[in-house]
Amino acid sequence: MARLILSLDGQVLAEYNMSKERYTIGRLPDNDVRIDNAAVSGHHSLIINILNDSFLEDLNSTNGTYVNGKLIKKHALQNSDVITVGHHQLKFSDDDVTEADQDDFEKTMVIHPSSQSEDVIRNVNVAVDEVAAAVPVTGKSIPMPGEDHSSTQAPKAAPATALPKARIQVLSGQFAGREMELTKALTTLGRPGIQVAAITRRAEGYFIVNVDPGTKGYPKVNEESIGPKARQLKDNDVVELAGVKMGFFIQ
Fold first, then answer.
1. What is the CATH number of the domain that holds 189?
2. Which residues contact 239 (CB under 8 A, 6 or more apart)?
3. 11-24 residue pLDDT tens
């Protein structure tokens, strides 16, 4: 059963099990989800549940309805979508989403270490080195895969204690709503021959670098091509890779 989790400034206020066909969201008392705040319209938005699908519609509200930061009129809800109404957030949680769905995403978009050549790892290191050199180091580090441990250079990849945790969340396509924590020193994403990029953890932060531009050219961050150089990722950046948009979030 799908649920809505209402929160304000990160504090959970209420949870709603979506057992009915229609749920209205708004400021007036007759709403199923009442949000008593001046930024919320009397009848702000509507969710309609049809079989296993849920659809969100803005009811011509004054301040609009947003999903994952994007203004919408109508939207097919996906697991982990975050609806913003005024200053409040409603997280849509679909308990029917299975682990197999997550496995399908990883099989499709995540390229595992066994598929990464030493040349790829070396090229990623070189590209990130050029950018990371100008960024202050915030903690100790451990070596990247493929680095020469006998080298006198300072190791580069950040351990879990040196950086805040980060995750990516798919914002578009068939896997919208899927999330993955960036726990590895190097995470390679994309589709070979189409577009491939790597996200690496360093003591200086998280960086994305092109691996294979394929048929789509260089990946984009916030609608801008990253080109051949590495780019440091910031909280709430939107990465576009192999036709899929993904949000980068610091936890």
1. 2.60.200.20
2. 168, 197, 208, 219, 220, 221, 233, 245, 246, 247, 248
3. 889 989 888 899 99
